Amino acid sequence: MKTPIEHIYSSIDKGDSSTQLVTSQEKFYKESDLPLSILDDYQSAALETLYEISDNTRRIYLSSFSIFEQYCQQHGLNALPADPRTVISFIGQQKETIQSSTGKQLSKQTLTTRLAAIRFYHIQAGFHSPSEHPLVIRVMRGLSRNQHRQTTEYDQQPIMYDELELLLQVIDKQPQLLTRVRDKAILQLGLQGGFRRSELASIEVGHIAFLRDKLKVRLPYSKSNQQGQKEWKVLPKSETFSAYDAVKEWIALAKIESGHLFRSLSRDGQYLRPYQVQDKYAQTPISHRQSGFLRGDDIYQVIKKYCNKAGLNADFFGAHSLRSGCVTQLYENDKDHLYIMSRTGHNDPRSLKHYLKPKD
């Protein structure tokens, strides 16, 4: 399967000025022939599609569409473009799929992700998405209301002050100083700021400002801010389990002056791994140009590890538990919705209902 960039390059190589990347069903004016003098400009702009979606979303879409492709190959059907009836049949097969790990059927969210991947690759190839066919929409609407399916209820429990205290006690038993200091900073910053794990992983030293009574963290991008608008989290130093001192201690101990805040450590935890980040445009494998810092999945594993050691069921706690814990704890601390939303970055107060629990 070609990536969006490969679609562009192959079109250029063939001299095709009507490349089908991100087009609609409308007819656009086309030059009979494009001069080679604009080739570099065209390629430079085309590279921006690498940032169209996040790396994690791109990876999920690729995996989901591969599953759809395998289904189509098994039945001799076309995957790109696909007939809406093919997509409906795929939904029928997927909704009955039993997960070996849980013994439950795939959730509606998983099926929605599968359809999002089908839509993404159709649009990238210049085709109208079969996922938008009225009958496909009706099927998914009915699926969302079907109360008889046995699906896995994925709802992580919040990590609040009580749980955090248990986790910090476990971290204090780690023999490596760097590991102790770094992991305390991760958990305390994640809880106080209500960060998503991807946001925690992307924080850089230059995004942090230590003021007299607060810690300010700038988020260049987030799930609710994908256009790079200015967004700050203001974290009071006076709050219980404030991340102020923990983050400051980690930066001083690790001697980090720039780049990603949370770094990878050697296996023995004695030193930081070599740090390297190059531009995404670099013509080298990602593993060779980005290394030495924690990614979202790494932070997820850190939290899972300490939950297991603390006796908290890791099946119910994960990286999202810090974000949900922030919302629930602030609510328990009698903060209003606007205050909580300013901390977490939620745009809609209805989104907070999922996290709020009645007080004792």
TrEMBL record:
Keyword vocabulary terms for this entry: DNA integration, DNA recombination, DNA-binding
Domain Core-binding (CB) as annotated: residue spans: 41-126
Transmembrane segments: none
Source organism of the structure: Shewanella surugensis
Protein name: Tyrosine-type recombinase/integrase
Tyr recombinase domain boundaries: 154-360
InterPro entries in UniProt: CB, DNA_brk_join_enz, Integrase-like_cat_sf, Integrase_catalytic, Integrase_recombinase_N, Phage_Integrase-like_Recomb
Listed Pfam families: Phage_integrase (PF00589)
Signal peptide from the UniProt entry: none
